Amino acid sequence: MRPERHFLKQPKSFWATVRLVSQILGYTDRATKQVRVPSVSEMASALQSVGLNPAHVLNAPEIGNDLGVLLQEYFTYRADILNNNVRQLLMNLVEARAMFERLYAELSPTCPIPFNKQKGPMKAPALFTGIINMLVEAHSRGHECDYDPRQLTTFTANGVPLRTLARRVDGAFPSAVNPVAIWEIKEYYYTTTFGSRVADGVYETLLDGMELEELHEHEAVSVLHYLMVDAYKTWWEDGRSYLCRMIDILHMGYVDEVLFGREVLDRLPEVVAQWVASLKARN
Fold first, then answer.
1. Mean pLDDT over the full length of the chain
2. C-alpha to C-alpha distance for 216 and 196, rounded to whole angstroms
């Protein structure tokens, strides 16, 4: 999923309001289990509840100013894309296993297929990671890829390090040194509760994005940054508010795309072709 260009390049104060209003009013409607769209008057009441001036979003009672209208447009977009698109893209364990087994039979991959971190009968291939690795290998035209970087991502110029990111990522193309693209994978098919470890996955991606933003602003170095997530129960039933945060991060410019579940099947080949073209242009 790529960002809706209309909401890109908004000032950080816009996103501060999005977060604050979402926190106060809640991201979802518990009765309908849908992502909610607050009205302008609800936004104003939320701001008033923490001692802020509702004129921030209002021209008159229940009439939004330019910011209020834009905020409602964004909340409407976010709810629509999650309720009517992302929900249908997320796979459960059975669906992910079927896709994995079909691709494995079709592609006969030589790329790494890691196992999950479960024990006993639940120990199995990391299905979503395996799907991603197979698709990257199949469409990378023989280029190298680091499917499991065991080092921090580093950017250099003239043999001197410019930046080294704070944490390891899940994949880098073609390597963790001066990559064209890096990505994070969050798959939680066996998780029974939405815990802090799952939530931290979203904030890790945000941290990476902020470091990449600083790299681009001060060194004019760009790298494509992706978040790929799956597991219907974890993200839709238990973690809809974090799906909202992912859409926010995407439009804040901290990731170039978020790929949800079965979306990788059609979109990832196109994405990898872009990586290959970027690498060719760089060399």
1. 93
2. 30
Distance CA 251, CA 257 (A): 9
- State yes or no: pLDDT of 283 exceeds 80: no
Q: How far from the centroid of its chain's Cα atoms is residue 269's Cα?
A: 18
Q: 194 is written with which tokens?
A: 């939405």
177 and 72 in a common domain: no
Q: In whole angstroms, what is the distance from residue 197 CA to residue 175 CA?
A: 26
Return the structure tokens found at 44. 């104003």
The order of strands in the sheet holding 181-187 is 171-173, 181-187, 224-230, 257-260
What tokens were used for 250?
A: 């995407």
- 95-135: per-residue pLDDT in tens? 999 999 999 999 999 999 999 877 777 788 999 999 999 99
For the chain, the straight-line distance linking the first and the last C-alpha, in angstroms and rounded, comes to: 28
The structural domain count of the chain equals 2
Please state the pTM of the whole predicted model: 0.94
**Based on the domain organization, do 127 and 202 belong to the same domain?**
yes
Helix and strand tally (H, E) in the chain?
A: 10, 10
Cβ pair 224, 274 in contact under 8 A = yes
User: Domain range spanning residue 82?
Assistant: 5-89
